[in-house]
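If it is no trouble, might I ask you for a protein's amino acid sequence along with its C-alpha coordinates?
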Amino acid sequence: MIISFKDLEVYKEAYDLAIIVNKNVNKLPLFEKNDLGSQLRRASKSVPSNIAEGWAKRQFEKQFKLHLNSAIGLCNEMEVHLSMTRDLGFWKKDFCDSLIKRYILLGGKIVNLQKNRKTY
Protein backbone atom coordinates (compact mmCIF):
# COMPACT_ATOMS: atom_id res chain seq x y z
CA MET A 1 0.00 0.00 0.00
CA ILE A 2 1.23 3.46 -0.87
CA ILE A 3 0.64 5.97 1.90
CA SER A 4 3.31 8.53 1.08
CA PHE A 5 5.82 9.31 -1.65
CA LYS A 6 8.38 7.40 0.44
CA ASP A 7 6.52 4.19 -0.41
CA LEU A 8 7.02 4.68 -4.16
CA GLU A 9 9.63 2.42 -5.76
CA VAL A 10 10.79 5.31 -7.97
CA TYR A 11 11.33 7.55 -4.97
CA LYS A 12 13.31 4.89 -3.10
CA GLU A 13 15.54 4.25 -6.13
CA ALA A 14 16.07 7.97 -6.80
CA TYR A 15 16.94 8.58 -3.15
CA ASP A 16 19.37 5.63 -3.07
CA LEU A 17 21.09 6.88 -6.23
CA ALA A 18 21.39 10.40 -4.80
CA ILE A 19 23.06 9.03 -1.66
CA ILE A 20 25.53 6.96 -3.70
CA VAL A 21 26.40 9.88 -5.98
CA ASN A 22 26.80 12.35 -3.12
CA LYS A 23 29.01 9.99 -1.13
CA ASN A 24 31.34 9.67 -4.12
CA VAL A 25 31.60 13.32 -5.18
CA ASN A 26 34.48 13.74 -2.73
CA LYS A 27 36.49 11.34 -4.94
CA LEU A 28 36.56 13.91 -7.76
CA PRO A 29 39.71 15.96 -8.26
CA LEU A 30 39.69 19.20 -6.31
CA PHE A 31 39.32 21.30 -9.47
CA GLU A 32 36.09 19.40 -10.37
CA LYS A 33 34.41 19.35 -6.96
CA ASN A 34 32.85 22.79 -7.47
CA ASP A 35 31.94 22.28 -11.12
CA LEU A 36 31.08 18.71 -12.08
CA GLY A 37 30.65 17.76 -8.42
CA SER A 38 28.09 20.51 -7.92
CA GLN A 39 26.16 19.37 -11.00
CA LEU A 40 26.17 15.76 -9.83
CA ARG A 41 24.99 16.72 -6.34
CA ARG A 42 22.28 19.10 -7.55
CA ALA A 43 20.81 16.86 -10.26
CA SER A 44 20.91 13.68 -8.17
CA LYS A 45 19.12 15.37 -5.25
CA SER A 46 16.53 16.95 -7.52
CA VAL A 47 15.23 13.62 -8.88
CA PRO A 48 13.71 12.38 -5.59
CA SER A 49 12.66 15.93 -4.68
CA ASN A 50 10.64 16.28 -7.88
CA ILE A 51 9.05 12.87 -7.38
CA ALA A 52 8.01 13.86 -3.85
CA GLU A 53 6.62 17.21 -4.96
CA GLY A 54 4.81 15.67 -7.92
CA TRP A 55 3.26 13.04 -5.68
CA ALA A 56 1.92 15.75 -3.38
CA LYS A 57 0.20 17.33 -6.38
CA ARG A 58 -0.98 14.11 -8.05
CA GLN A 59 -4.63 15.17 -7.95
CA PHE A 60 -3.68 17.96 -10.38
CA GLU A 61 -2.61 16.17 -13.55
CA LYS A 62 -0.67 19.11 -15.02
CA GLN A 63 1.38 19.69 -11.86
CA PHE A 64 1.98 15.97 -11.40
CA LYS A 65 3.27 15.59 -14.96
CA LEU A 66 5.37 18.76 -14.70
CA HIS A 67 7.32 17.45 -11.70
CA LEU A 68 7.68 13.94 -13.08
CA ASN A 69 8.86 15.35 -16.42
CA SER A 70 11.48 17.30 -14.50
CA ALA A 71 12.55 14.10 -12.72
CA ILE A 72 12.86 12.31 -16.08
CA GLY A 73 14.92 15.17 -17.49
CA LEU A 74 17.17 15.06 -14.44
CA CYS A 75 17.71 11.32 -14.96
CA ASN A 76 18.90 12.18 -18.48
CA GLU A 77 21.09 14.94 -17.07
CA MET A 78 22.64 12.43 -14.66
CA GLU A 79 23.45 10.15 -17.61
CA VAL A 80 25.44 12.99 -19.16
CA HIS A 81 27.26 13.94 -15.94
CA LEU A 82 28.08 10.31 -15.15
CA SER A 83 29.29 9.66 -18.71
CA MET A 84 31.54 12.69 -18.43
CA THR A 85 32.81 11.58 -15.03
CA ARG A 86 33.59 8.15 -16.49
CA ASP A 87 35.14 9.39 -19.73
CA LEU A 88 37.34 11.89 -17.93
CA GLY A 89 38.58 9.03 -15.76
CA PHE A 90 37.39 10.48 -12.46
CA TRP A 91 35.35 7.42 -11.40
CA LYS A 92 35.70 3.78 -12.46
CA LYS A 93 34.00 2.79 -15.70
CA ASP A 94 32.00 -0.08 -14.18
CA PHE A 95 30.76 2.11 -11.33
CA CYS A 96 29.59 4.86 -13.70
CA ASP A 97 28.04 2.39 -16.12
CA SER A 98 26.04 0.75 -13.34
CA LEU A 99 24.74 4.14 -12.17
CA ILE A 100 23.88 5.16 -15.74
CA LYS A 101 21.94 1.92 -16.22
CA ARG A 102 20.03 2.55 -12.99
CA TYR A 103 19.16 6.12 -14.05
CA ILE A 104 17.92 4.87 -17.44
CA LEU A 105 15.69 2.29 -15.74
CA LEU A 106 14.52 4.88 -13.22
CA GLY A 107 13.50 7.27 -16.01
CA GLY A 108 11.39 4.51 -17.57
CA LYS A 109 9.73 3.74 -14.25
CA ILE A 110 8.90 7.40 -13.74
CA VAL A 111 7.26 7.45 -17.20
CA ASN A 112 5.16 4.45 -16.12
CA LEU A 113 4.16 6.23 -12.90
CA GLN A 114 3.07 9.22 -14.97
CA LYS A 115 0.92 7.04 -17.23
CA ASN A 116 -0.67 5.12 -14.37
CA ARG A 117 -1.20 7.90 -11.84
CA LYS A 118 -4.93 7.23 -11.50
CA THR A 119 -4.27 3.74 -10.14
CA TYR A 120 -2.62 5.14 -7.01
User: Anything to note?
Assistant: The CA atoms of residues 43 and 78 lie 7 Å apart. The chain has five helices and no strands. The chain has one domain: 5-17+31-119.
